[in-house]
Design brief:
The protein is of the alpha+beta class. The chain contains 20 helices and 12 strands. α9 runs antiparallel to α10, α10 runs antiparallel to α20 and α14 runs antiparallel to α15.
Length: about 675
């Protein structure tokens, strides 16, 4: 027996007799590590109850006018984030330490897996990814009281309450259907490893960036619902919300760009966008978010589009929830999707119906209270932005129809309908080309009312520029559509620079421009560069495939791909067959590529890793498939001109959003409250 003497205060002594042998095992580091899963699970349970309190008490306090109940929401949001963050750290620790007594780690990790992929394996699965989603939801909620100190207490309390209810729904989803800390008995000697397709640095970054965008729109959703309850939307509301939408849009742009780049070089599709349904469900919130950004500008400057802005705020996050349902319901089978359990799909569908259905029902009841000044002049900047919104909404509807109509028909009739690139080329592409026309012209117009004379210089110089580009493209590139696409890209770039020139007559005025001006220029130039790259890729890309023996060649668009050698090898967690492919043009050596075919014994899975040579001009790559020394190996050779412009353009758009966050006009001032 041991004795412990404690002296809590002067004049008081307490003797406690206890058996220290009973406590000793609990202090053992191995025992503590074994309890990490239970700790993470308990933290999630505590977080669920905290989120429920965060969701109910501030909203009730705003209704009753209770300052204490509203203030509780601020503190609850911070505590909730801390609880979920600690739980996420616990799960990460389990993956790093290869604790295969936890089912998730055993299914998606391996002791020999590189450290980076042990960490990315945390969210490279259904349970971990939904926990990451919930962590970010709590993170955004915790930032609201930090940056929203000048907001009306009732508006802020209601928004924090809505965030709490959303978090409660996802935590309930995790705990009842997707527990990441579920134990496994008996404990396997080693894990099954992460899906080899996900063992890539791009996939370590892509999901967090994508989720920061998806979940960032929850702030717009929460404040839209709060505004409907309050019955008030004004310039202050728009000014405060705009940086949140900018941040979400920028992260989502970056996430989609990284996903496109990963699919290009990892999956070997030979393209940068395939209109895969899971790609589409990430693209739709981006389109609506872009419309939301522009409608907030109109609301903040001209006090118009209040109803429309609130509807877009609800729609952007609702489409993010739809994407979550699609990926995790088993509706779609894709390399991007995680779960196929119908129970999970039903839970997410219920959550989607409650959140979106509730918000839209509230909108139907309360939207009439948000009406602002009506009418607008067609030839004005707000006129151009309204047309921008209509085109983006139409584009979203087009993608939505092309994505979900086949699923609807399959569910209703059992008929398998394929909707792919031809549909989107005929429907989506013309809308985007028309959008570019207005993007080039609208920034040159004044607010309220203007005349066509403001576009005189654009027409005077832009028209001949476009005509020259079309003529040269038809003459040398033999493509009218390619010429029109490149001409529109040049027109947008010219219109953007012309708008900048009007604002900056000299170096002094250049330096005085707010960050938003440079953000606008970078974003529109990014769209122009992206458009040029997409057009060139669509029209002039070439590829070929053949079975080659060592010393034989394939010729694609003047580039000669020669198979020089094929050799096996082994790395940390996979075996590989590497080909050496020498690329030359007109007898001049360009680059040596090393495509690989990899075998992951833990997963018993074969993947193909293409060999790439990226440049700002032509990008060439080759891939190797099955074969042998007698019959030869199947070699794929691709020539992709200016494909890197697509990702450079998207990166500029994302960067533009982050730069705009530093605009001094977005700083919230309490005197506006």
């Amino acid at each position: 027996m041991g004795s412990v003497t404690a002296t809590p205060c002067v004049g008081m002594t307490i003797n406690i007799n206890c058996d220290t042998r009973a406590i000793a095992p609990m202090l053992n580091p191995r025992y503590c590590r074994a309890m990490i899963a239970e700790l993470g699970h308990y933290l999630l349970i505590l977080a669920m109850f905290t989120s429920l309190a965060q969701g109910v008490l501030p909203i009730l306090g705003a209704h009753k006018g209770s300052e204490n109940m509203m203030a509780f929401g601020d503190q609850a949001a911070k505590v909730l984030f801390a609880l979920i963050a600690l739980s996420f750290i616990a799960l990460t620790t389990i993956f790093i330490s290869s604790d295969f007594s936890v089912k998730l780690a055993a299914s998606h990790s391996h002791s020999m897996k590189p450290f980076l992929y042990k960490i990315s394996g945390v969210w490279g699965n259904h349970e971990g990814s939904i926990l990451l989603w919930t962590l970010m939801l709590a993170f955004y909620a915790a930032l609201i009281p930090v940056f929203g100190k000048g907001l009306p207490d009732t508006l802020k309390a209601r928004a924090i309450g809505v965030q709490g209810l959303l978090t409660f729904g996802f935590l309930a989803f995790i705990l009842f259907t997707s527990n990441p800390f579920e134990r496994l008995n008996p404990v396997p000697i080693d894990g099954l490893g992460l899906n080899p397709l996900l063992q890539d640095p791009g996939l370590a970054i892509h999901p967090p960036m994508l989720y920061m965008g998806y979940v960032g729109f929850s702030v717009a959703f929460s404040f839209s619902v709060a505004a409907l309850i309050e019955g008030k939307v004004d310039a202050m509301w728009a000014q405060w919300l705009r940086p949140w939408v900018l941040a979400a849009w920028s992260f989502l742009t970056l996430g989609i760009m990284l996903g496109s780049l990963w699919a290009y070089y990892e999956l070997g599709w030979g393209g940068w966008w395939m209109w895969d349904p899971v790609e589409n469900v990430s693209f739709m919130p981006w389109l609506v978010g872009t419309a939301l950004l522009h409608s907030i500008m109109v609301l903040g400057t001209r006090h118009k589009l209040a109803n429309w802005t609130v509807l877009l705020g609800i729609s952007a996050f609702s489409l993010s929830l739809i994407g979550t349902f699609v990926v995790r319901s088993g509706v779609l089978v894709s390399v991007h999707s995680f779960a196929t359990d119908p129970e999970r799909g039903v839970f997410i569908l219920l959550l989607l119906m409650l959140a979106t259905g509730g918000a839209l029902s509230l909108y139907a009841l309360r939207a009439k209270t948000l009406k602002g000044p009506g009418g607008f002049e067609p030839v004005s900047r707000e006129g151009g932005l309204i047309l921008n919104n209509l085109l983006l909404a139409t584009a979203t509807a087009t993608v939505f129809l092309g994505t979900f109509y086949p699923l609807f028909m399959d569910a209703m009739t059992g008929d398998k309908i394929s909707v792919g690139k031809p549909y989107f080329d005929l429907t989506f592409a013309p809308i985007m080309l028309l959008l570019i026309v207005f993007m080039g012209a609208a920034p040159l117009l004044k607010w309220r009312k203007d005349s066509a004379a403001s576009l005189k210089r654009l027409a005077l110089f832009g028209g001949p520029l476009m005509s020259i580009i079309i003529a040269l493209t038809v003459l040398f590139g033999k493509s009218v559509l390619g010429g029109i696409g490149l001409a529109l890209a040049a027109y947008l770039a010219f219109g953007t620079l012309l708008a900048l020139a009007r604002k900056t007559q000299n170096f002094k005025t250049w330096r005085a421009q707010p960050a938003g001006t440079y953000g606008f220029v970078l974003a529109h130039l990014g769209v122009a560069i992206f458009t040029a790259g997409a057009v060139v890729m669509s029209v002039w890309a070439k590829d070929d495939i053949g079975r080659l023996k060592v010393g034989e060649s394939l010729t694609v668009s003047g580039y000669e791909f020669t198979l020089a050698s094929v050799a096996p090898g082994q790395r940390e967690n996979y075996q590989f067959l590497s080909a050496k492919v020498d690329v030359s043009k007109n007898g001049k050596e360009i680059k040596t590529l090393y495509p690989e075919q990899r075998f992951y014994p833990v997963r018993n899975m074969v993947t193909t890793e293409a060999g790439f040579h990226f440049t700002l001009g032509p990008t060439i790559f080759s891939a190797i498939s099955e074969g042998n020394s007698e019959d030869g190996w199947i070699i794929r050779a691709n020539y992709h001109p200016y494909v890197t412009w697509i990702w450079i353009g998207a990166l500029l758009m994302s960067l533009a959003g982050f730069i705009s966050l530093f605009d001094r006009r977005l700083r919230f001032r309490e005197d506006l409250a």
